Amino acid sequence: xxxxxxxxxxxxxxxxxxxxxxxxxxxxxxxxxxxxxxxxxxxxxxxxxxxxxxxxxxxxxxxxxxxxxxxxxxxxxxxxxxxxxxxxxxxxxxxxxxxxxxxxxxxxxxxxxxxxxxxxxxxxxxxxxxxxxxxxxxxxxxxxxxxxxxxxxxxxxxxxxxxxxxxxxxxxxxxxxxxxxxxxxxxxxxxxxxxxxxxxxxxxxxxxxxxxxxxxxxxxxxxxxxxxxxxxxxxxxxxxxxxxxxxxxxxxxxxxxxxxxxxxxxxxxxxxxxxxxxxxxxxxxxxxxxxxxxxxxxxxxxxxxxxxxxxxxxxxxxxxxxxxxxxxxxxxxxxxxxxxxxxx
Length: 344
Prior knowledge:
The chain is mainly alpha-helical. Helix content is 60%, strand content 3%. The chain is built from 14 helices and four strands. Strands 1-2-3-4 form a four-stranded parallel sheet. Strand 1 (203-204), helix 11 and strand 2 form a beta-alpha-beta unit. Helix 2 packs antiparallel against helix 14 (326-340). The protein is globular, with a radius of gyration of 24 Å.
């Protein structure tokens, strides 16, 4: 019976002779492994000099970014509501979810549920920015109304719901503009051109892909095809921008129980995109999916690589470096690249 290999041994010379199947066995074993123990093993295996070097480099990068960037109200807001506190996480959840809720009643119910969970009061007058403190006052008042269940509270919050919804919509738009280059691929490409240089390029992604029907999947397939053409027509440097593809956007039942169907149908759709991307010389990356889909993603990636991308070097797979299976996945990819003679 195959046993789980310690993280530091996965990087040893002994693992260099492993086959893709050997690596796949470790990927399967690491799925159920204790993440805390894995992280401790990895941390213990790192030399103190490397930890010190990484800390210095990280501090240098952060200091450089802050020095070259003029702080805005958005920066002050994100500093107050960063992802290391519950309120910041709630705001980011709302920022993503509200974009996907079409009707007002559901949006209001979602806002009430999320706002009532946070302790906004501890952020009152905590920021150096007057505007952030004013925003916190509004969030605190909204949270208190959301937690009240009396008739008076319902009377008070009822007329205020549209105002709260409008304010949050505006806030979500401001937050989204920091991370989204455009509403369409054409707009995103044009925005990206203003930032591109000899050393900087972009990987374009689409937000919200999740096919629920075959019609959805075909719609996203067409959108990806149009994106490839748009990226190609806008190339101005020797380093082309790339396209990131979500497999769950190309099949409504992208799951292990449908493996044979997925490999056939989704394999053909992904193959179309890779074939066209190769013709246009636009790098194409398969985006990461949920953990329980990883092995299916690897099987699909290998199938399409061997059918459409041998010898190209522009077909890639996103690896979640923070995941406990990142090391064996990288080992599997390295072996696959060696076996096929193709850079990944």
